[in-house]
Amino acid sequence: ARRTMKCKTVQVLWHEKGPVLSVDFNPASGLLASCGTDKEIKLWEVREDADGNPDVKHVDTLTSHTKAANVVRFSPGGDMLASGGDAGEVFVWKPGTSTNLHGDPTTWRTAAVMRGHSDDVQDLAWHPGGAALITGSVESTCIVWDVPKAQGVYRLEGHKSYVQGVCWDPQGEYLVSQSADRTVRLYASRGPPHPLGSQKWRRNMSCQKVLSKAEENADPRAVAAEAAAAGAAGPAGAA
């Protein structure tokens, strides 16, 4: 049977009419998080109305960022939320009662503030196990964070321009960063497995591969066409 996807544009004054920069769903509860240039994180409950159409209800506004909040990501288990912004800080949020700067009660609280970047945090990603984060910054570096200890355990360098995206592979073995320098860097810890962030893990961590435009494989159709054209024209220098 064919199913029709329903779409509804919800007219809400999100983020004081400023740009919304990132959104993410909680994998456990379905809660939606959004953030933007107004420095706030908003949490939304997404549900169906009486007619079966999608509806959104505002739940919380989290206000610890002092500059634009660029990215929000729920942990794999949905029990934590991480956010990064223009102040270079990374916030980790957990369920718990608190009060925001507007004096409103919230159901999520700041659990940790991690500092290490000197410029905007553009992207972040959780380790599949939920105990670590990687962040990428305008300062051209990435930091791997031990979330329970709320501290950076490794700084990845090598990009020559802004780091615009980061991710872990689903097995948690590889780290990848992308940059405005038009390269993608692939990192891994060589040798036998060691606890994430441990001294041996850090000692063995290195960039395994740098992907750039020059390393793309040529289009086989273009190669064949070029070879055919060369054959039709004859060897170079022929009359």
Automatic annotation (TrEMBL):
Question: What are the entry keywords?
Answer: Chromatin regulator, DNA damage, DNA repair, Nucleus, Repeat, WD repeat
DNA damage keyword on record: yes
Give residue ranges of the WD repeats: 13-47, 62-94, 114-155, 156-187
Q: Does the keyword Nucleus apply?
A: yes
- Give the InterPro entries listed for this entry: Beta-prop_CAF1B_HIR1 (IPR055410), PTHR15271 (IPR045145), WD40/YVTN_repeat-like_dom_sf (IPR015943), WD40_repeat_CS (IPR019775), WD40_repeat_dom_sf (IPR036322), WD40_rpt (IPR001680)
Which GO BP terms sit in this record? DNA repair; DNA replication-dependent chromatin assembly; nucleosome assembly
Q: A Pfam family in this protein?
A: Beta-prop_CAF1B_HIR1
**CAF1B/HIR1 beta-propeller domain spans which residues?**
5-191
Q: Give compartment(s).
A: Nucleus
Q: Provide the Gene Ontology terms for cellular component.
A: CAF-1 complex; nucleus
Query: Family, per the entry?
Result: Belongs to the WD repeat HIR1 family.
Quote the protein name from its UniProt record: CAF1B/HIR1 beta-propeller domain-containing protein
